[in-house]
Design brief:
With 224 residues, this protein is an alpha+beta fold. The chain has a single domain (2-221), classed as Ganglioside GM2 activator (Ganglioside M2 Activator Protein, Chain: A, Distorted Sandwich). It has helices at 2-47, 59-65, 151-156, 162-167, and strands at 54-56, 74-77, 86-94, 102-112, 120-130, 133-136, 147-148, 178-189, 199-209, 212-223. The strands form 2 sheets. Strands 2, 5, 6, 7, 9 and 10 form a 6-stranded antiparallel sheet that branches. Strands 1-8-4-3 form a 4-stranded antiparallel sheet. The chain is globular, with a radius of gyration of 21 Å. It starts with a helix and ends with a strand. The structure holds 2-acetamido-2-deoxy-beta-D-glucopyranose. 2-acetamido-2-deoxy-beta-D-glucopyranose is lined by residues 109, 111, 179, 181. Residues 109, 111, 179, 181 line the site of 2-acetamido-2-deoxy-beta-D-glucopyranose. This is Ganglioside GM2 activator. Keywords: Signal. Residues 1-19 form the signal peptide.
């Protein structure tokens, strides 16, 4: 009887310690989710809607905007460009860290060797830095570290952000072949985030078209 009692206590202890760990873990994950989701919703609803907030600038302005940066920003092509259908190049966003509200300066280009479209499989891994630790953002409600079997179907129903059209970036399938350059531009972010978010965000994307590699890219940006 006593033995049974002890093992019951022991079991209760193990369960409570375990569930506490699980709870702490999911609190971090949920916070990482809330922060990144708010950030992306903010860009979608407040920043990318106004094409008048975009102006094209010269290289000198880009250079000046990059001074005093913290070097957190990075854009990595994680695959062999020779094997990729789409090869991004010289992707740059400044200032680093990005300030909201503030003025964002960006440029880049992409070489698309041949047309691609459905089925476009996109596997995303999204991370948010919390207290210096990368926390993976869970896939909830179609946002976060999700895998989309066909991004084309998803994109078919969305309106291309006006800012995308202004800078000449396509956002719908099928994507044509070509060597696109996004000229350096500045974007004024006038609105304020509903809640302050700071720390870095990392997005890793594995993209395939019919099983063929389109691109593997990873972007890290920091927020003041
Ligand atoms: C694509 O454009 C860039 C910038 O103009 C140029 O450096 C590069 O050589 C071009 N690539 C091809 C394959 O045309």
């Amino acid at each position: 009887m006593r033995c049974l009692f002890l093992s019951a206590v022991c079991l209760a202890l193990v369960v409570s310690v375990f569930s506490k760990d699980v709870r702490v873990l999911s609190e971090h994950k949920l916070r990482a989710y809330d922060e990144t989701r708010m950030l992306f919703d903010f860009f979608e609803s407040q920043v990318l809607v106004d094409p008048n907030s975009v102006r094209f600038v010269d290289e000198e302005t880009v250079y000046r905007s990059q001074q005093g940066s913290s070097n957190t920003f990075s854009f990595t092509n994680c695959e062999d460009p020779k094997k990729e259908i789409a090869v991004p190049r010289d992707v740059s966003i400044s200032p680093d860290p990005i300030r909201i509200p503030g003025t964002l300066t960006a440029s880049g280009g992409i070489l698309v060797k041949k047309p691609f479209g459905a089925p476009l499989k996109v596997a995303l891994k999204v991370y948010k830095q919390l207290f210096g630790v990368w926390v993976e953002v869970p896939c909830i409600d179609g946002f976060g570290s999700c895998t989309y079997d066909d991004m084309c179907t998803k994109l078919a129903h969305v309106q291309c952000p006006p800012v995308f059209e202004k800078i000449g970036l396509p956002c719908k399938c099928p994507f044509k072949e070509g060597n696109w350059t996004v000229p350096p531009f500045q974007l004024d972010i006038k609105a304020q985030l509903p809640v302050k978010v700071s720390g870095a965000v990392k997005v890793h994307a594995d993209v395939t078209y019919n099983g063929e590699l389109v691109t593997c890219s990873e972007i890290v940006f920091d927020l003041a």
